Structures are given as C-alpha cells and as structure tokens.
Amino acid sequence: MKNKDNANSTSFLSTKNQQILRKQVIDDDGPGTVLHDFEKILDFIGPDGVGVSGKYNFFPLKLLPQLNAQMKHPIAIDLKRPVQKSYPHINGLYLVLRASGIVMIEGLGSKQTMVIDKAVLQSWQTLNPVERYFTLFESWMVKGNPEIIGEHAGFVDTPFTTWVQFFKRIPKKGLKVAGDKEEETLIIYFPGLYTLALLDLFGLVTLQHAEPEKGKGWRIARVNRTPLGDALLALMTHYFTSEDYYHNKFSGEDELLLSSLQSILQPFFPKRRNRLVIPEAEFQDGIHVFKVSLGRIWRRIAIPAKMVLDTFSSSILDAFDFDYDHLYMFSYRNRFGMLEHINHPYADEPPYASEVLIGELSLKPGTAMRYLYDFGDNWEFAVKLECIDPADETIKGPVMLESHGEAPEQYPEWDEY
Known about the structure:
Layout: H1 4-8, H2 15-23, H3 34-45, E1 50-52, H4 64-70, H5 88-100, E2 103-106, E3 112-116, H6 118-125, H7 129-143, H8 159-168, E4 175-176, H9 181-201, E5 205-209, E6 220-225, H10 227-240, H11 243-251, H12 254-265, E7 287-294, E8 297-304, H13 309-319, E9 328-333, E10 339-343, E11 368-373, E12 379-389, E13 399-404, H14 412-416
Antiparallel strand pairs: 1-3, 2-3, 4-6, 5-6, 7-8, 7-12, 8-13, 9-10, 9-11, 11-12
Helix pairs in contact: 2-10, 3-5, 5-7, 5-9, 7-12, 8-9, 8-10, 11-12
C-alpha cells in the first residue's frame, strides 16, 4: 500500500528544509565529490577490468595510492602497508559501486577480475547528474550492507540508522575529533570511517582533515553537518519510519524500496526521472562443472542446469560417502557482493534448495560457493564453478567426473567407539 504522504504531500518537511532541497544544485561538481570520484573509479576499472583479490574481491593493494591520487581530494595517510579500508573514500565508493550493480566479478582462482557490465554502463551514461547522484545515494541507502566490504552490521543497523545516530552526536558548532582521544577511537567504529567518507562524498557533512600521524592513517580534525545533510535526513526519516517503507522492506523487494525513494525525491528534484537499469538474471543453461573440495580432498561433479540444488547436495554427499541425515546450506556472493543463502528443504527460512534450479543462480565460471552440511559437526565444503559446457540431453543427472583423495569418515569418533 502506497503511503499517501509520500506520494502527494511535502507538508511533513519544514519550509526551511523544503527550500534547501528545492534550491540544491546537483551537477558534476557537487554537492560533494561523489560523481567526480565515482567516474574516476569507473575509469580505473576501464574496459578490460581490473584484477581483484581476497574474499571480498578488493582492489589491488599496489594500485590504491594511484587511485587515491585521482580522487578530487586525496587523503594523506602515513602507513607502511595500507589496505583498501585505509582509504575510506575508496572503500565507501567500492561499497556503492558493488551495491549499484554496475560491476561483476569474473574469472577463476586467483585470477579474478572486476569488470563493468556494458549494458548497465550504457544505462548509466544516459542518466543526468541528478539521476546519477541519487542512483548512488539510493544504492547506498537500500543495498549498501557493510558485509560487502567485510564490515559487521548489527541486526537493526542500516546506512540510514547509522546516519541518524551519528548526526545526533554532531553539535551545531561541529564535532571536534582530533585531540579528543575518546572521539578519535569512537569515530572509527561508529559511524565507521567509510560511512563518514560517504557522508562527505555526498556533501552531507564537511570535514576538516588533521595532519596524519605515523601508523594512524586518516585523521579528522572536525566534522560539520551541512544544510543539505539536515534537510535530506529529515526527508529520509519521514520515509524510513513510514508504513510504506516497512511494507516494502518485509516484501524483500529492493526494487520497491528504490521506486518509493524516487517518488519522494522527485517533488524536490524534478530532474530525477530515470533510474539505472540492471538486466534481470537469465537462466544459465548447460552442464555446470563444479569442483567440490574438503581440504585437499576433492571431487569434480557435472550437473545439468535444470537440476535443483537439493539434487546437487545429494551428489556431493554421495561423492564423499556421507549420509543424508542432516540439514545443509549453500552460500555464495551475488553480483552486488552480498551473501545469498539457499537452505535445506526442511529449514525454517526460504529459499529452499528443492525449489531453486542450478541455472537460476546465473553463476559465472569462477564463482565460489560454500556448502555447509550438518550444523552440529559443520562439514564445510568449498564449491567452485569451473565451467559451463553446452547442454547435453544424454546427461540426465549429476555425474562425478574425477575424484582425488580418500573421503574422511563422517563420524570418526563413533566408528572408533
């Protein structure tokens, strides 16, 4: 059900905040540097993509200083071995980049590459600066889960709630950070340096930088809220505490949330008409060849795309001579960098492995999954899609192509007893 206040009225905002929003100019030069710096990120990835590494597919360490230098306001740090989170603006942009769906991860093993989806890039290039700004802003608000960059988020923590709570800590005269040992420590964890950087990138705060100290990384002298930050937060508060939001949130459809955000922004930003188009995932037909590993022991299994994941689970257990007596869960990262879980048919929460076809996952060769079997003993199998061969009607079910190493005893202590 649509919230009528959102759709038909702006009376919930003060006259001052309405004026601030309506008069705000959004172009390639502001507010903040998000559009300038995001384009530099896209240029950095380039048409051939860029090699990424680690569990979260971060940018290569050796190229981070080069990328930092291309930001409109490079930050100074004094660290011997900086990592991606040492550059909070780059880390924040990476979060928004993945959440937007403009990029994908391809490749096998250690040779994984972040590439720009050409169809999505074409859609991005048709957007005007207002549409681009709010595309990135809404991606952060709706899909910007800290898990994308390996950060922990509590059950009720969202980018919006973190923004609200942090603004409550900032006095009208600004928040002094450098020199206040308690605040210097607190701000690292709440709101977190990447969140602070995103607030800066979107022009919602202004920052005074402090001189770096050896081994301490990015330092902040003072944080001030901006009029845009206060006005936009008031607008977002109305939406994120509305029935409309909770209805859309519990539907599990991010597109409904994005559409609703657009509807409340448009009265103030009439140029906000179009949205970024992400192609719907297509069924990936063919014979999927997986390497399933348990430590140094592995099996290579081929399975048709039209088989359900529950059948794949059975083939794994058969390949390692395990019984079927326990629950399991498949986990993998989707194109947005978020973990997806597909559960045993008898688990409490969907989606269920008996209802999801292999080809519906739209996996790319190189995609890694985790198969966790028996939540008591926690048998954790590493599953990697090696290739997708053409469909073959003669292959009716899973086939084990290769076996390496002797499978462990499923219940070694019981056997010894």
